[in-house]
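Field log, afternoon session.

UNIT: design team B
ACTIVITY: writing a sequence onto a fixed backbone
BACKBONE:
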């Protein structure tokens, strides 16, 4: 797992000027020029340092912008950090979440091991204390994450904090208690997201299908989740030929990993409330249809969907929701060799449908079609899959939204609502019969590519052909699963996008 600082959260009812911390963090809206009334006592204790900064106009307070003050006054905190909240009209819980992440990363940079957060201090009264606490906890925990397993300590020039203590501050006792309730939920969601990131960041020489299965088994033991792993021999008996075909060129053979959480009382089998499916290509070279070498190192992130499933099931177990949820992770390594599947091959999938292979780099839909049909046979109330599926979705939406596709309007609306609550945005796109028509083959039931037009939609339509009549939603996370551009609130590498989104959906069903 990634070497990272531990983050603990507590709540404290206190006036700002009396807070003892290495770093006291305040949130400020853009273009603020007058000292907020709520900060007057703090500013007096700090010898007018905040008021002086505001009058100078040196801090525009754009979103995630920061200013550090070192006042030599009677305030209890050693440093003050102002974090920009941007335009007040666009303020929401996600702004708080990102501001908390920004503060956590700044605390680590300053070696400030004890950080007090009062980012919500100027927030409107319409915001709920529980959701404020949840957003602050998520942001701080996700922000305090860096993948440094292969770096000597402090080799990158930054200081490391073994334990970041975060205190959520408010002067109102009842508000603080409600904020504490939300922060406990937020801590679980943030840690679930970081669990996904810690596995997803691991390189292909450390994570292959068998070792990913071992990671899942380890997490299952830790959280009391049932885990079953189907190896290549069992997959052959089950006739999961699409999954086997994709992994046929690698010495590390495919696996189907099944995680099961049953929080029903009394626990019983039967129809699951949901099946969550995640694509896990532990490394994707493209196979025989090999990718260009430029940026191929990022293809270790083609397992993001599968890593998300591990994080989601762990989070669900910690939340103790009264649900029965199954997680499925089809895992394969897509490499070229003399045993690889080829363009022109025809594969009979687990469902019985045949697929003509026209491009071995359109492999994600192949491993998913077997897993999705396996999920459909459980007759769950809903199936949700996450996959780094198409470059077409990257072109369509850029790095700002995941693509959302669904065969049920109601399920699509539920996922959209969960996306808004989690701060992980999606955009609904079509995947109807006209797109499936583009996937028809002249020599098989389907083909695995259909050209450039509507590529994300045709890929989703292909997947939809294997879920029968079960309500299903597909989240294409290709553009948002990883990043090489650091943000003030988040490190480079895996993002864990959709862990909190799907957990938010499962919390509300």
């Amino acid at each position: 797992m990634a070497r990272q600082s531990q983050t603990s959260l507590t709540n404290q009812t206190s006036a700002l000027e009396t807070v003892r911390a290495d770093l006291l963090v305040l949130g400020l809206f853009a273009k603020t020029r007058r000292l907020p009334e709520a900060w007057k006592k703090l500013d007096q204790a700090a010898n007018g340092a905040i008021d002086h900064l505001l009058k100078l106009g040196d801090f525009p307070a754009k979103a995630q912008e920061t200013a550090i003050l070192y006042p030599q006054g009677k305030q209890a905190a050693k440093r003050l950090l102002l974090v920009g909240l941007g335009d007040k009209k666009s303020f929401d819980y996600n702004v708080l979440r990102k501001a908390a992440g920004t503060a956590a990363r700044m605390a680590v940079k300053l070696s400030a091991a004890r950080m007090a957060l009062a980012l919500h201090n100027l927030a409107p009264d319409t915001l709920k204390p529980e959701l404020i606490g949840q957003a602050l906890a998520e942001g701080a925990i996700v922000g305090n994450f860096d993948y440094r397993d292969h770096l000597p300590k402090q080799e990158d020039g930054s200081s490391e904090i073994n334990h970041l203590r975060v205190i959520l501050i408010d002067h109102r006792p009842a508000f603080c208690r409600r904020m504490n309730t939300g922060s406990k939920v937020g801590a679980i969601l943030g840690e679930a997201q970081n669990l996904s990131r810690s596995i997803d960041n691991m390189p292909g020489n450390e994570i292959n299908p068998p070792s990913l299965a071992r990671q899942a088994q380890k997490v299952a033991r830790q959280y009391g989740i049932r885990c079953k792993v189907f190896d290549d021999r069992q997959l052959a008996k089950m006739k999961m030929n699409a999954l086997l075909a994709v992994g046929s060129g690698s010495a590390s053979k495919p696996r189907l990993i099944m995680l099961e959480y049953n929080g029903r009382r009394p626990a019983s089998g039967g129809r699951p409330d949901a099946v969550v499916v995640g694509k896990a290509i532990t490394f994707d070279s493209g196979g025989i249809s090999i990718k260009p070498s430029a940026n191929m190192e990022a293809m270790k992130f083609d397992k993001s969907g599968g890593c998300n499933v591990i994080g989601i099931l762990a989070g669900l177990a910690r939340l103790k929701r009264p649900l029965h949820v199954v997680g499925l992770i089809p895992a394969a390594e897509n490499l070229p060799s003399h045993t690889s599947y080829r363009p022109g091959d025809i594969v009979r999938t687990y469902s019985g449908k045949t697929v003509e292979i026209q491009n071995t780099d359109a492999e994600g839909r192949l491993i998913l079609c077997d897993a999705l049909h396996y999920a459909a046979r459980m007759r769950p109330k809903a199936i949700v899959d996450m996959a780094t599926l198409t470059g077409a979705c990257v072109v369509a939406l850029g790095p700002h939204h995941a693509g959302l596709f669904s065969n049920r309007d109601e399920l699509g609306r539920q996922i959209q609502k969960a996306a808004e609550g989690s701060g992980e945005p999606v955009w609904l796109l079509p995947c109807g019969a006209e797109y499936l028509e583009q996937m028809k083959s002249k020599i098989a039931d389907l083909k695995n590519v259909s050209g450039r037009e509507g590529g994300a939609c045709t890929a989703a339509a292909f997947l939809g052909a294997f879920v029968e009549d079960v309500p299903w939603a597909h989240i294409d996370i290709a553009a948002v699963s990883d990043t090489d551009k650091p943000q003030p609130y988040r490190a480079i590498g895996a993002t864990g996008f959709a862990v909190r989104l799907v957990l938010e959906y499962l919390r509300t069903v």
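LOG NOTE: Residues 173-200 form the longest helix (28 residues).
NEXT ACTIVITY: expression trials, pending approval
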